[in-house]
């Protein structure tokens, strides 16, 4: 790839003729400053109005302001480090360390596009549209495409006959139905194809099987596999993939947390996925756990039960730390008085609800055996609640930068509202002996500009799959109430 490129659309080289010219809207740079390097061999064009809007949004401590400042710094590094004339294009291969091989063009001339009279040129969006229209007319043999996160901007561009598209590079998956679920149902003929020359042995009371076959290469470490038995009197086969080498895999049977003898803080698993989740939460070799599921599937309850057991009973961790993004569903209620923990209290209603469940008196109904426990009447319950509260710390996301958590059980609630950058900031707080658990439902995102495909929770589920010290499970069945389950389905 040549380092010096012709002006956009000049038929100077075959590569330039075949590459597209992407005109960047301001919101793309404010969403992802690294978008300057995300267009591979294609050229990018930054209008003057985009720079003007970056300047107007650089003040403050918000994520948008930080990204605007970072984008401005990156543009400054690219421009100041170039020996070539800006009008002829600046090669991005050097500044991007070969991530991008196209060129950056900055608007260096006054442009007055022929916009309809109903679109006032005083508005920034319309000035950017005028630039796209001008470039499309100037270089008719080249695809000139507006890239914007603003839906209305894209609609206006298409109305004017211009090419426009969303910025897709931040999306982990286009279709979230393809997101890793953490479990796999084995086919009925699985043992016929994979049971030949099978090895089996026992470790710590659990059976392990070394199997060979075509399906093994598709399995991931710490993925759960299950198979229903044709005989209703036989128990179904549930196991976790311990290791994968080519077409050989080692499967390990699970601890059965559906049985009352294995109850965790009085809680038993009510379905297969909850059993998988408790196996992940109680495994000391798993440092990072992600639990997805709709409302009422038991994500918070199971995680709190596992954390309290490992903090107060087995002493594996010193305390529980809970954090979440403070994004309101409705109108914001304004400033809150008090300390950091007092300010976070209104956001932790789910924590209080689940602690009430975990600390309720023992249920004598056999249908609800294993739910709650008897702690010596009301006095015992009050003392237990005080002890629990002393070992649970509620922290705000705003003060996490620079911290290190040692031997802590860190719970990130409502993680679907985090950006990938925020998720990275939180997970990298983990020091030796710390376990991080992310809970969320990607169908309930309250943060503006985040979608199911670009959420930080989707990002970490996809990036961590197959790592030996992480695990993921998508909880399928709601266990809150018949009303909640029906509402989740029909509303």
Instruction: Provide the gyration radius in Å.
Output: 27 Å
Distance from first to last alpha carbon: 53 Å
How confident overall, as mean pLDDT?
82
Q: Strand order of the main beta sheet, please?
A: 3-4-2-1-5-6
Domains (count): 3
Looking at the structure, what is the overall shape?
A: globular
The percentage helix is 25-40%
What features would you describe in this structure?
With 491 residues, this protein is an alpha/beta fold. It has 3 domains: 14-165, 3-Layer(aba) Sandwich (Rossmann fold); 176-253, Beta Barrel (Elongation Factor Tu (Ef-tu), domain 3); 260-490, Rossmann fold, CATH 3.40.50.300. It contains 15 helices and 18 strands. The chain has a 6-stranded mixed β-sheet with strand order 3-4-2-1-5-6. Helix 3 packs antiparallel against helix 5, helix 8 (272-282) packs parallel to helix 9 (299-313) and helix 9 crosses helix 11. The two termini are 53 Å apart. The relative contact order is 0.10. The model is unreliable at 1-7, 9-16, 329-333 and 362-374 (pLDDT under 50).
Defining key terms:
491 residues, alpha/beta, Rossmann fold, Elongation Factor Tu (Ef-tu), domain 3, six-stranded mixed beta sheet, globular, disordered N terminus
